[in-house]
Amino acid sequence: MAEQGVFRTEAITKVYGEGPAAVHALRGVDLTLFEGEMVVLLGASGSGKSTLLNILGGLDIPTAGRVFFRDTELTRATDAKLTAFRRDHVGFVFQFYNLVPSLTARENVALVTEIARNPMTPEEALERAGLAHRIDHFPAELSGGEQQRVAIARAIAKRPEVLLCDEPTGALDSKTGVQVLEALSTVNRELGTATILITHNAGIRRIAHRTIYLADGQVAKVEENAERIAPAEVTW
Questions:
Q1: CA nearest 38: which of 213, 206, 159, 234?
Q2: pTM for the full model?
Q3: Helix ranges, the chain (H)
């Protein structure tokens, strides 16, 4: 794993609201994400995981502190530059798939490939997500796990340097959850896409290079996995 930082945060805080009603979502978070790395974020609801992911992805900005993507300081970027950053460098996968019901799997992925700078074909992206055999099916004809893998194919089709995943297996049973984790692991391994994955399932942490535990908006501890397991070995 190359020791080149893709993301670096310096003492980022995020406060929503003001006065007595203010909510401190993040309280001085420092972390670095390296090239080719898979990191799992663990923590209770309200610990700041999704807020941190949204700030890294340029969907939100911190109240204080600094965020760097390689040598670019995102916290100084204009809205237009943040939009370009999200379009060119980041893939997002959420708990809910956000597919267009009237479009096939191929057409859903093509929504991204038509605007990306150096995209895969929809066919290649779907194959990497393990869905080559379902390419012309509509979302209503796909299981939840298959729909999530279409969402992964859509996210990776633009060849992002970073993949940000917020509870991608949260709505799935164990069998389909494993299939989704296998797709994410394949992308991380074969394309070298730095991947951050939020989950409530502590067992998933063992497929990652590192686990970052968040509590009350702070990094509580960081663990490195000396031995990683395959997604099929994850306990649910």
A1: 206
A2: 0.89
A3: 49-56, 79-89, 105-113, 122-128, 144-156, 174-191
The CA distance from 222 to 59, in Å, is: 25
Q: What separation in angstroms does the CA of 117 have from each of 69, 81, 200, 210? A: 19, 15, 34, 31
Burial zone of 118 (CB within 10 Å; 0-12 exposed, 13-18 middle, 19+ buried): exposed
Dihedral pair phi/psi, residue 221, rounded to 5°: -165, 165
Answer yes or no: is 93 within a domain: yes
Q: Is residue 128 a part of any domain in this protein? A: yes
Greater confidence, 170 or 163? 163
Question: Residue 162 belongs to what domain range?
Answer: 36-61+78-233
* Helices 144-156 + 174-191 axis angle, to 10: 20
DSSP 178: H
